[in-house]
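Anyone? Bumping this.
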Amino acid sequence: MNARFEPDNGRRRDRLLLIGFAVAVLAMPLWMRPFGAAYPDLLQRFAIFGIFAMGFNILFGLTGYLSFGHAAFLGVGSYTAVWAFKLLTVNVLPAIAFAMLVSGAFALAIGYVSLRRSGIYFSILTLAFAQMCYNLAYSVLTPVTNGETGLQITRTDPRLIDTWISGASNLIPATNLFGLEMKGYAGFYFCAVVLIAAFYVAMRISRSPFGTMLRAIKSNQNRLNYTGVHSRPYALAAFVISGVYAGLAGALLACTDPLAGAERMQWTASGEVVLMTILGGVGTLLGPVLGAVIIKYLENIFSAFNEQTLHGVFGFLPDGLENGVVTVAGLFVGEGWHLTLGALFMVLVIFLPGGVMEGARRVGGRIRRWRAAPRAGVRRLAPADSGATPGD
Amino acid sequence: MDAVVLQLLNGLDKGGAYALIALGLTLIFGTLGVVNFAHGALFMIGGFCAVTMQKLLTLSKKVKDESVTFFDSYTEVPYLRLWLGDAGERIIDYAVPLSILLAIPVMLLLGVAIERGLIRHFYRRPHADQILVTFGLAIVLQEIVKASFGANPIPTPAPAIVAGSAAVGSWIGLSDVVSYPWWRLVYFLFSLAVIGAVFAFLRFTTFGMVVRAGMRDRETVGLFGIDIERRFTIVFGIAVVVAGLAGAMYTPILSPDYHMGMEFLVLSFVVVVVGGMGSLEGAVAAGFLLGILQSFASMNEVKSLIPGIDQIIIYMVAVAILLVRPRGLMGRTGVMET
């Protein structure tokens, strides 16, 4: 293949990837049906956490900085969005814009401090900041966050713009996009469109010289510094971008269900997004979205299980064995879903650090080699053009 | 003056807990080079050793109550009381201190199992992987405890003999207002004893010398022909036991529940960062320092000045330290970067 055409070829492949992604996302209500996941509530959670994980990947996947406090930005985004609903209008666009702005500002402040250190120190610092936000949201900031009850839209909110346009109303309005209520499939398709846009932006970032710089930070920051590049602004930019993604996800959560609570900022939520990213594949474009879908799907399935359904599933076993199996499996489902999450986390890090994308690549490589093998046997002297190179 | 002394005292027991957890953390950092995100969960498991001990001692038998004659009435009487009478009752009273006897073997076994089964395979993996796998382990441990003990805090009282408060104020010539719960005093002294034991072990034994040398320069120790990795198992075990003891003895102060570990973990990380990664003295000093600072910040006078300061003071100190003196109070430069 001629080297001159490669960039063009890459661009075409990206366009195909984007179109394929968009079609797959928009058609989710169709192809998720066999899995029993085709209802808008779950689908929009797929899309929202896909955005969250994708943003996290811009930081962790590209620069290698492992943040343990990203849920804080999600929480900040949610709170800002609900405040925008309360004060200005229940139209979702201003809420999203404000949420992205505010969480970006938070990310700038936290990132500026945290990025002075790298490695473990960075992880600890971000974790500490997230815990700080969480503690504050529950204690001093209750006037802003409404503490344990959670922040929500009430009858008496000013909603300045809405009142100005259509006069005062005494009802609790639904969040909408110029009249289109964010309920059911409308909510899902809105999230899906935002997800596709976010995917496009992430793709452009990853392919840009800026993205290359971020990858350089991951592979060898010292070397980058020695060559005279001041790498910290790049890392900070990545941190802010991923914070904005998290804020966007938080705002979408608030758009589809206008209730913001501090539990969204807890460290388990931060851990979950890390898990989504590594489950899908760190540093890949599709991986984090895939990971988010898998985690949220499993969460949905596993937490719905109970003793009874388990007896149904394992009913084919002999009675004594069945009871034993159900007792053990019962630990992992329903309330115990987090145990599954933790175990999955460990198994994944131990055996498949590259995630699903890497697993797929390995399987793909093996299949290609297996199919190429007989041909290679026939044309033993021909140059290897099977495409099964080790680095593939 | 009274209030200052009171807050100083209040900080000591919490500081002791921070110091003990941070000591184990930094010991693991320094020797194994691994960040143990499961250390808070191990502290929590220590707490549940005390709960288990209490449950074991109060294993009860249903006894027919003879004083009720109209119908059959049963009361639960612990076996220990049936067998030993009042002495048994006294043993039950001492459940928390006795749980040390349970905590040491349990935590040691757990520590060895974790190091042999899991951490060992992560020495050559990137730090991010180590963090992630121990984080997963923390969740698993937490959820197992939640599944077996329930989600609610379980009260575990201290022995009756130390139930009240000590009039510390009158000892040192201040007013009687300054009083301090006996158990907290016990905990403070206990933490000092454990810290002393760990330091003595590292200072005065050959094993400790090798470990200290390994903390300085692992490669050189290896070049001397010492198989440092074999010692890691024991170092990890010791760190886990220290965390477990800290948790077991802390239960009368804070009733253990399954997620108490994470709060302590985050704070202990901050303690380690402030004290300096890999510095044992730093961890202990910073532990007490931050414990006392936190208790000063929760004084009403301070809180009315800066609302919410008690929630965030520790993190603010950490931020300040990292900006001004990144290697911490007593740390060496360049430890555990990248």
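Late reply, but here is one note on the structure posted above: The domain at 2-324 of chain B is CATH 1.10.3470 (ABC transporter involved in vitamin B12 uptake, BtuC).
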